[in-house]
Predict the structure.
Amino acid sequence: MAARVTRREFLERTTLGGVAAAALVAGARPRHASAAAPAYPDWIAASTKPAKRGGTLTRASAWDPPVIDPRLTQSVGTFQFVGLTSNRLVRYGFADEVTSVTDLGLKGDLAESWTVSPDHRVWTFKLRQGVKWHNLPPVNGREFVAADVKYCFEQYAKEGVQSFTFQEIEATETPDNYTVRVHLKTPNVFFPHALAEPVAVMFPREVMEQDGDLKKRLIGTGPYIMKEHTRKVRVVLQRNPDYWDKGRPYVDEYIILSTPDAATRLAAFRTGQADFIWVASPSEVEVLRKTNPNAVVQAFHNSLAPFGVALAQDRPPFNDVRVRRAMCMAIDRQKMVDTVFEGHGIIGWGVPYLYYQDTPPTAKDFGPWWQYKPADAKKLLTEAGHGKGFETTLFYYEYFPQMTSEVQLVQQDLKRNLNIDVKITKLDYTTYYGRYVENKWDGMSWGFQSGHAIGVDERTYQYMHSGSPKNFFRVNDPVIDDLTTKLRRTPDRAEQRMLTKKIVDREYDQVLRMWMPYDNGFLVFQPHMRNAAAPALRRSDGYGSPTLVRTWLDK
Amino acid sequence: MYKYVLRRVLLAVPVLVLSSLIVFGLMRVMPGDALTALMAESGNVGEKELQKLRKDLGLDLPYYQQYLVWVWQMVSFNPGDSIFTNEPIPVALRKAIPVTLELATLAMILGLVIAIPIGVLSATHQDRLSDYVGRVVAVSGLSMPEFWLGTLVITFAAIWFHWMPPIGYVSFWESPWKNLQQFLVPAAILGFRLSAATMRMTRSTVLEVLREDYVRTAWAKGLAGKIVVYKHALKNALIPVVTIVGGQLGVLLAGTVVVETIFALPGMGRLTVEAILYRDYPVVQTNVMLVAGTLVTLNLLVDMTYAWLDPRIRYQ
């Protein structure tokens, strides 16, 4: 006869089991990583060894391209590889060219050189000769010429993401096959920077004319040819043997595997199925290095934060600068950096600091309204007539898990310090985006600005000028309008820095955009990867992917 | 028998109509539409351009007209194109269905292979160690959701064995070995969960049948234990088990959504979730109707199996 378990025995055993399990869990709890996390370099210098040809580079990617037509999207899912199949006229430096992570000098890509008229309205680009489109129909490796540039600029202006930028062009001339002369409607000293943005790639006229769009075929002049794109599976890029930069690229094939789950991406790196990976927190790096002690880590440092609290500043109570300042003073950003981002984050700002100072700003640099001073905040809000607080709303989309923690901390701080009741609504991406850009919402939103752009004009004039369609934070300040317009007409670098500083000072003083902390993250590479570090402002797994043309595998 | 089948087929029609109304209605109730999602990706689409797109896609029509257009597309087997990717839906389905079908079939097979022998063993060894072990396994299967189990398996396999199923789907015909490596682990996870309820049901029905008079008679005739259990008891015990397996197909298909995401398999689950996020109405509606149709058909098959296993059912 089998032994039966009585009710009493069962209770005793489960209680003991529960205690044991609790002890086990407590023992296994990871310690707070930031306390002992080793410091990782923020720059990995280029290898001094001669580059080796061959091999396959693989990455498990969170992003799947929504469409491959570069006119219609600015999604990182698309631009994680389009910069490798296609070229721009100018570009930022690659990992083996720049001196440091802050090197923002422009280099020629399809253009060898460029000059500007004294009034900064006419830009002349001299194109590289002998550049060929990929050897695929319908272009079949024909030469890339000035007419192609003119055609692309016209198409970009006609529709899509970049129409605002390219509609600034009054006319484009092509005096010969290798010269492009662009006439702008208004002076803009930063026009080449707009062309260096990762999204401004050249595409062939023949494909547009045959297909009506670029959704089916991605053909360019770039170092890689798209061999396969299977949605939700993989993108395979194959070395372009006719690439104009002879000898490059070094890696034969780059495979991007669509891997939506974060744990799976980590496992892919651990097992060698992926050659590099981006992780958010120091504790993740630490855990990863336990299984992959030879992995090479680059501590990425963001020079801007794409997210902040956007206030409906065109209507009460947020049209009162005292209310905005009080709210800004009532939020403890440093606490967010320390807790949510384990100390490896920035306190948040919108214009890359590299354009106005050499070192990342500290809380002090933001001025009085950005210091955490709950008592002063309360006093200021009382002066504004809201001593008893008020009720408002905040909607957001969770771009990354830490964002929810940030939203909740803002809610707690505003309630505790100012008695402002914030009703939070978490939305899915489509609903959030539709509501946010519609610009008719009340209260607050966890606002964003495009992640792809790094140019100072994009980050100032295009995102803050009251007439810009990209001004999602609803900035409507005549001083800012004046300063941003002046900046794009100022060629002198020192003066540019001074003007940019004035713009950010004005922004902080008026609390026009209430920036929130953002993570820095880490790029982790397998030990055989060379020259893949993320250069200025852009990660090499995302918008900064063109730098992978200089990457090689040391194995 | 044919009357029984006909009755069941006719009952399926209102189920499908109701499903179509629910999915159509729910998609329209959700805020935003595919064009908002398109705009989110594009960054900048003018209102004029949006209106033109809405008109081109028929999104400006009254809801009843949109519904009728869609129903006509469905019955004429021409569900149209994805609003978001422009890909014809049949093409997307041709890629996704084999993945989910393979995953679900393997999961079902593994689930039954685990559940039935352990269920029988538990019943025939009631209150012994093997019974306790079987029951613990069953309860574990019920308690552990796929997303947790999947993450755990993938993480610890990578840490301990430096291995994980290869990512980047490969079809069975392209490379059978690689394909099986990709599918066996996720199928086992789905199957394990599926096996839990089946195992419990098998155990209790076998226990019940073993106490029936005819089984006692079989024992009294001196038949071997295996023959009594597997030939006389199991067939009758399987009737409720078949029912529960049919009912679990819905759970299985829901589970594929999570498992496909974790193991990066491009099946119906991921296709549908992405389409919902992008408000890709035609894709969501087609997928849901396809799943509803599949479930209705499978339940019909279950009912027919039921009738085949127990002739009394069709005579009632």
Notes: The mean pLDDT of chain A is 89. The longest strand of chain A covers residues 169-176.
